[in-house]
Amino acid sequence: MSLDPTKFADWQIAEEAEKGMKTVYELADKLGLAKEELLPHGHYVAKVDYKKILKRYEGKPDGKFVDVTAITPTPLGEGKSTTTIGLVQGLGKRGKNVIGTIRQPSGGPTMNIKGSAAGGGLSQCIPLTPFSLGLTGDINAIMNAHNLAMVALTSRMQHEFNYDDATLAKKNLRRLNIDPHRVEMKWIIDFCAQSLRQIVIGLGGKMDGFMMESGFAIAVSSEIMAILSVAKDLKDMRERMGKIVVAYDKSGKPVTTADLEVDGAMTAWMVEALNPNLMQTIEGQPVFVHAGPFANIAIGQSSIVADRIALKLGDYVVTESGFGADIGFEKFWNLKCRFSGSKPNAAVLVATVRALKCHGGAPVPVPGHPLDPCYKEENVGWVEKGTENLTHLINVVKKAGINPVVCINAFYTDTEPEINAVRRLAERAGARVALSKHWLKGGDGAVELADAVIDACNEPNDFKFLYELSTPLRTRIELIAEQVYGADGVDYSPDALAKVKAMEADPETSKLGTCMVKTHLSLTDNPNIKGAPKNWRLSIRDILTFKGAGFVVPIAGNIKLMPGTCSDPAYRRVDVDVETGKVKGLF
């Protein structure tokens, strides 16, 4: 690779790397896939037939399983996806048969603040353009399946409002008595569109629908995305699809997609999406891309299906869980691993000097604005203070019984005394520590990290869940709040308290997992509070039920399921070369 990341943008580096990338046929040959197991989408992207692969490798032992998570990030992100790709490349440099499993990016952040989550510098997943702009259509399939449920719901409400029982019976419909004030689902779109959060639909005459309040959430927050993440196969997905609660009737009973008789058609949209997507790192290692991001408002994990394939095909599998260890890793730990039965061998906790300074007292970076000069100036005191957040999250990983490896994701502005402070305090907290320069040097810059991960994987661990599914729901929420976030307890809004009591009284709902919705910018439910604060309580304002995915969703603080677009979004810098058709400006 000839391009210097300090001088060239990510899209330029990716474009240069793509000139020499492997075809999907070469990747499939390296993985040992049969011809009929590869489903090409052009020369450099493919889906793979998970069912055939898993059947052929059914008796093969799994490889080592590594999760990449992070400290609480700044609004700019701290290179977790880049580190995931860098570690895959570093393990490749050590001669390991390694596969990455990462999440597909959402169009929301791709066209807004964070970019496409393809990595960065010399540690990227390529080809960048299809990765960033829809890939093989999985998110479109999710949007169609989800919005079809909303079409079925609103159409049924219109017909029930306009017709008496006898007329409904002639139309082969039974009255569901849907309560318009208890519709659980919203429409979805894969952009950050704050103007669609709250809308009124059905304006016009009786043929124009049922008039009521509604709204939009971002596509990756859909329960169908969660189902794609956790479903083991098509049969499992089909069963889960019929359990989705779209609303409640006027007596308080749930109305499901099966009640609307739309669950089969929804699954039909998702058949091809269940097959993971095959791509590669800049250095040619295979990467499976599947399911979606946003662990602050969703499960934020790559799919169980992709992990299962990778664990059969590779000796090492590096996956990524969204945002910081308080939310993404916690869901990997207590939801994904519970559903999959897979046990991780190690967890990498990504930390940057920039984020530690932010937690230690430096001004919070603002996306779209120049970074405060203090971030380029040495300040060991800020770094040391900020490691309180790092130490807290090291302890969270250790509570899962997993061996933590702290990756100091190096920026070229970091100083040696700052790096030494991070290393010293992280080792004191009981973690292995590795300095990694993968952004600048690719796999060559990640061999120290790779060696630390190999050592951690070779040590036995004592993986265990934070709670059992038999644990009462409020107790589970309190365990997550206190043991993971560091809260003193939990307070519920009156509405949330009523819901949690009803869920605890329902034998089916009470055994579901717990998928917390919380800001990714703080351990607390207040994004402005940094570090590892003490003497605070978590506020739960609402609780949703994702019966299809298999969990309840407590919502903490004021976080919204539809993010907003900033004043200087990324789409302002994305364009197309009209002579070649190549997209430029993605990152």
TrEMBL record:
<comment type="pathway">
    <text>One-carbon metabolism; tetrahydrofolate interconversion.</text>
</comment>
<keyword id="KW-0436">Ligase</keyword>
<keyword id="KW-0067">ATP-binding</keyword>
<dbReference type="InterPro" id="IPR027417">
    <property type="entry name" value="P-loop_NTPase"/>
</dbReference>
<feature type="binding site">
    <location>
        <begin position="74"/>
        <end position="81"/>
    </location>
    <ligand>
        <name>ATP</name>
    </ligand>
</feature>
<keyword id="KW-0554">One-carbon metabolism</keyword>
<protein>
    <recommendedName>
        <fullName>Formate--tetrahydrofolate ligase</fullName>
        <ecNumber>6.3.4.3</ecNumber>
    </recommendedName>
</protein>
<keyword id="KW-0547">Nucleotide-binding</keyword>
<dbReference type="GO" id="GO:0004329">
    <property type="term" value="F:formate-tetrahydrofolate ligase activity"/>
</dbReference>
<dbReference type="Pfam" id="PF01268">
    <property type="entry name" value="FTHFS"/>
</dbReference>
<dbReference type="GO" id="GO:0005524">
    <property type="term" value="F:ATP binding"/>
</dbReference>
<dbReference type="InterPro" id="IPR020628">
    <property type="entry name" value="Formate_THF_ligase_CS"/>
</dbReference>
<dbReference type="InterPro" id="IPR000559">
    <property type="entry name" value="Formate_THF_ligase"/>
</dbReference>
<comment type="similarity">
    <text>Belongs to the formate--tetrahydrofolate ligase family.</text>
</comment>
<dbReference type="GO" id="GO:0035999">
    <property type="term" value="P:tetrahydrofolate interconversion"/>
</dbReference>
